[in-house]
# Entry
Amino acid sequence: MCGGGCRHARAAANDEARTRASPPSSVAFGLVVDFVSRIPRAAVPVVALLAGALPGAAQDRAGAERYRALRHAMVAEQIAAEGVTDTATLGAIRTVPRHEFVPADLRDRAYGDHPLPIGLGQTISQPYVVAYMTELIRPRPGMKVLEVGTGSGYQAAVLSEIGCAVFTVEIFEALAAGARERLARLGYGAVRVRHGDGHFGWPEGAPFDAILVTAAAGYVPPALIAQLKPGGRLVIPVGGVYGVQHLILVEKQADGTVRTRQLLPVRFVPLLSGLR
Ligand code: SAH
# Structure
């Protein structure tokens, strides 16, 4: 499966992350909170039942609100609690509607702590792994980022939500077309999606501040190192298809040499060759 991370025990979430995950202070909204708290407890299930009978637009709103709550819980319990602290990353993952990036029959599992199939033998990565990889590149608005392995488009949307200029390459034409349509529909039309073999990067878009590879390679493709800016960061799972893989962080120094660090053990689908 893709993006199933075998987590290292990491430091507990810092105070900042914990604060963001908790409900806002009620001081400024004392009256509102007081009013809500006076609704008899028994009324709540009735309200919940009624939600199922709401017409079109109201039901959509109730659904969106339910997914938003699931997303916030996912960030608090699976991501911040596991040590991801970058506020840009956490904010983007709280915002991007992950359920829109999975097949319709799997929507209710979109916020679970696991990867999910997206067709053609491919998967959308586990939320924690997406967050961990995003944090590793120290994403900031305006950065130019290449992703290899578009898949559903979810990782690309997270980077775009942060304000990065995103270039993403996918080897399956059908997945590239699906992701392009989905990203445009959800307001991430600025993401550039290309059907191609990511071993060769995106020469016309280079150089990149950061490169994320979301499929496991046997080695770090030289073209990707060449297309990285000095000072840039490349994150890639390296290892056998069925064997041990590790996320590798490659940092290009100002003088063009690279420093490599081995991070989490992970499990990703393989980086393929030959267009499909
Ligand atoms: N980042 C994706 C999930 C990636 S799964 C998401 O957010 O949904 C890995 C993806 O890499 C698959 O879609 C697979 O088809 C693609 N892939 C595999 N080999 C590739 C290659 N050489 N070039 C580009 N994409 C590739």
About this structure: The mean pLDDT is 85. The beta strands are 4-5, 116-119, 122-124, 144-148, 165-170, 192-195, 208-213, 228-239, 245-252, 258-267. The chain has two domains: 4-8+87-267, 15-82.
